[in-house]
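Hey L., structure's done. Input below.
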Amino acid sequence: MDDSLHEDQISFQKSVREFARKELKPGVAQRDETGEFPREAINTMQKMGLMGLVFPPEYGGRGMDYVSYTVAVEELARVDAAAAITLLAHMLCSYHIFRFGSEEQKKKHLAPLANGEKLGAWALTEPGAGSDAAAIGTEAYNEGKEWVLNGNKFFITNGSLADTLVVMASTEKSRGSKGISAFIMDGNAPGLRKGKNLDKLGFRSSNTVGLFLENARIPEINIMGELNSGFSQTMEVLDAGRIGLAAMAVGIAAGCLESSIEYARERQAFGSPIADYQAIQWMIADMATELEASRLLVRRAARLHDQRRKFTLEASMAKLFASEMCVRAALKAVQIHGGHGYIKTHPVERYLREAKLCEIGEGTSEIQRMIIAREMLKT
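Output:
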């Protein structure tokens, strides 16, 4: 356990680790093979309060800090990253409502997300708008007491299962990023059509779909904040989300390290465990050092968030370093396992497939470098 955590956080860490070991681990390989969503485990996570950890009790949450949230994500990802990313996507939706929703919207929409009654999704990405979030083509116009949305969203985690979605759409196309608004949408809204689960390289048991908005109608009161303020909202939500994704990368890498240490102690070559050989020792040393550095970056960003201080730079640093570290750790883990690391008998094959997404989701590594440079060069 991590001695940088206080007693309550350590106790919480133990409880999530035990849950992951008992309820996620037994079926994780089969779910990866079949693409089956871990519904039972997600239901348990909802009952445990994991889906609303950081939100105040008056909105159905547990009132815990953001550091504890990163601990939960890491422990889940160490065993089953698909369960972790389900939580991350849910968090983007609920966090957006918490930060920018009205009091009425929080009570109506955030509370059931935080207390585990409902599952959330966050719909920003489109076929032609990923890193360039301002390029979204989905449009919304007001018609009486309703907003009407048309457009397509893509790579939406939890998309076909979500009870509540936050959807970004252009409300004044000529203004570009300054003409985007955020809307709360019911998962069964008229005109919302959900695609099939995408056949992905990794995270195969998570739900990831396209959403098709064809004159989709939502109540006028479901716009969040002021009209055309959605882009600035989105940037803040992504800052917080990057801390969670970095924690997921740390969790995957921790799984790689643990598997590698166990295998290196057991595997014999030339009459000795391969753990006796310097080549293996150095790979494990590098994995452990970079893992700990990444965890510290994540915790620093999370603590700044808890202190309500600006954390854009720190979140991007954590996300960049942790995600690229995760890929390096997964590659080393496969190398240590040799041929066994290339087959599904050992989890490191899955970890490698999952690791790559960490460099892409919530802003690619290239985008993180742009953000870091911009923040560093400010006058």
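The mean pLDDT is 97. The longest strand covers residues 146-157.

-- N.
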